[in-house]
Amino acid sequence: MSEEKSLNFIEEIVEGDLSAGKYKSIVTRFPPEPNGHLHVGHAKSICLNFGLAQKYGGSTNLRFDDTNPTTEETQYVEGIKEDVKWLGFEWANELYASDYFEQLYGFAVKLIEKGLAYVDDSTSETIAAEKGTPTQPGKESAYRNRSVEENLQLFADMRAGKYKDGEKVLRAKVDMASTNMLLRDPILYRIKHAHHHRTGDAWCIYPMYDFAHGQSDSIEKITHSICTLEFVSHRALYDWLIEQLGIFPSHQYEFARLNMTYTLMSKRKLLQLVNEKYVDGWDDPRMPTISAMRRRGFTPESIRKFCDLIGVAKRENMIDVGLLEFCVREHLNKVAQRRMVVFDPLKVVLTNYTDKDETVRCEDNPEDPNTTYRDIPFSGELYIERDDFMENPPKKFFRLAPGQMVRLKSAYIIRCDDVIKDADGNITELHCSYLPESQSGNDKSGLHVKGTLHWVSVPHAVNAELRLYDRLFNTEDPASYEGDLKDILNPGSLQIIQHAYAEPALRNAKFDDRYQFLRKGYYTLDKDTSEDRMVFNRTVTLKDTWAKEQKK
RNA sequence: UGGACCAUUGUGUAACGGUAGCACUGCAGAUUUUGGUUCUGCCUGUCUAGGUUCGAAUCCUAGUGGUCCAACCA
């Protein structure tokens, strides 16, 4: 029996509408503005919109809200499409608000004819001043009562390019005294002599969000138009315009956007990080963008799982970034190929090992019942992790120490006999003896050791560069920090290990392969990899209870 | 100081007038040739005050707290 999963409030609305017969099927949309790249907050919205249509048998449009030509670029359109696809969703139609410019113009004319819109010659300063404040009513514009004919002519002249930017606007005539600021004669059209990424120079007037979004929804017969909480007060205008225009009544529902600890979600600030070179582009693996998470090695499955776990509600929230990491680990644990890589080498010489061409067999993924195996070359000179050895170990240190034994993963048990140091007292290598009868899978030693270490054979080791990422900010809520962003950047957010020693199987690593470097973390090949240099990104570390124990 | 929306363990999210549950985190233990995984157990919560009701997290009122609204941005 599968357990009944409770519905979120939007699913309840949809189920209510469906069972009441209000709609036969639903239509949703994901409406990004192509002025930046998508981030994990958008992923929440994507999963919600596409997920709803999937669950209830409907369809979802991808609609670019491209009504502001000065900030929007085709480059972003392409990036957004790639991101949505990568997340695993298919849109029914690829649409653009700019497809509707002619229709929208017609809607505006209709409003003018109904006496519900007028051309205003006021400067933006005047309009702002007359708008009033949340506690004081606004003042009606001197141009508010122009005749329908005059408005029609003026609006046509606006379109014809007779005026300069900012000289005139088209405003709705609603209520300057409304307690809802958005109803105080909102601007519908403004003049912008700017090149549009799709319509080129065909237009010099562009509709505002409020006169494009709801109308586009209506044109596409969107049944459930889902957006974030800051649009709650827009809903009154949304409904008013649809009613006055007498067009298909789409309905808007609002949910709380995603906030996550240690991460910035504002497109403006993310752009700033890119422009001021605090990160290396939109897909720098430390960014919360979809493209960055992809490059870093997150899987679409794990992001979808995350979006499922965080839920959908109207309460402001702050999700622990650890939950995202949990979802990534959970999925990667199931699919990642295990490999051994030594980050900070300490040489181990097996004094009783007589050279033979030996390989040891190791499963690629113990979580996979159908796991494949690979042969790893073994030899008398090995690298282990420097911090897997301690000369004076504390209690419960299950790794290597003088006289102590550990198992080398998939190979033998070894004992540390001698610690070799240079003139300055630095440990340069360890002399150990191995127990031939302790061979992995064929252990007749009768011993059982607490610790198992990863290792790499010195003569067979291949070189790789490792990029270890940590949170970009050192404050839990960077969005609420008011000073300079660079003051809260985590200086250790990127640590590069130039020369790590990897087992030879890694030489065949391909892009999109997911690896678990044993006892270290999950890694994936970075696009900076070239013929002569392999670069791996750390997707996320493994849980490390030993590190936690030590902090106590 | 106007209006709108919101308030459940540390963080999220359920409970639709009838036993406050789930996940993450944290803690303790078992298993483990990854101090990973897996498994078991445990901790912590209904913003406050009134009211309605046999019974309130749920409904009502007031208060308190948070978020949003005065871009020719979306």
From TrEMBL:
Cell compartments where the protein resides: Cytoplasm
Q: Which NCBIfam families match?
A: glnS (TIGR00440), PRK14703.1 (NF011291)
The Glutamyl/glutaminyl-tRNA synthetase class Ib anti-codon binding domain extends over 336-434
Q: Which EC main class describes this enzyme?
A: ligase
Kindly state the positions of the motif 'KMSKS' region in this protein: 264-268
Which species is listed as the source?
A: Deminuibacter soli
**What reaction gets catalysed by this protein?**
tRNA(Gln) + L-glutamine + ATP = L-glutaminyl-tRNA(Gln) + AMP + diphosphate
Question: What does the UniProt keyword field contain?
Answer: Aminoacyl-tRNA synthetase, ATP-binding, Cytoplasm, Ligase, Nucleotide-binding, Protein biosynthesis
State the gene name recorded for this protein. glnS
Per the UniProt entry, the Enzyme Commission number(s) are: 6.1.1.18
Tell me the protein's name: Glutamine--tRNA ligase
Q: Which GO terms describe its molecular function?
A: ATP binding; glutamine-tRNA ligase activity
